[in-house]
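@channel sequence for tomorrow's demo:
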Amino acid sequence: MEQIIEFAGNHPFLVGAFIVVLLLVIKAEYEHQTGKANQVDPTAAIRLMNKDEAVVIDVRESADFDKGHIKHAKNIPITSLKSQLEKLAKHKDKPVLAYCRSGNVSGKACRILKNSGFSDVHNLAGGILGWQDANLPLTKK
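structure tokens (generated this afternoon):
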């Protein structure tokens, strides 16, 4: 114990940096756990869409959406999601499936949706790339 105190006294910058990094890791994990959406693989996503009539939201930009998307998906880019929540309000009681290119940005979208009162929010694991890896179809219509 004396060595730890001596080290801390001799290296206050290192100890301070360690504490800051530790607090940032704790904050990131807390945000991840509290805003966590269910990760679903493409097969489970299909079940959600067919059985539970999930609302599918593509949070990529319009140009990427136009290159190919999941059938019946609504394109609401992450940059305008907060301003378009009123359009989705009527679907608060339905399951919502969000996806992006790889699943990271849609995780942020899921947190926004959950914080806005959507209770059954799902994130497509792997995003559209995971969908394509599972050899599932895309549409340009």
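heads up for whoever presents: Residues 12-34 form the longest helix (23 residues).
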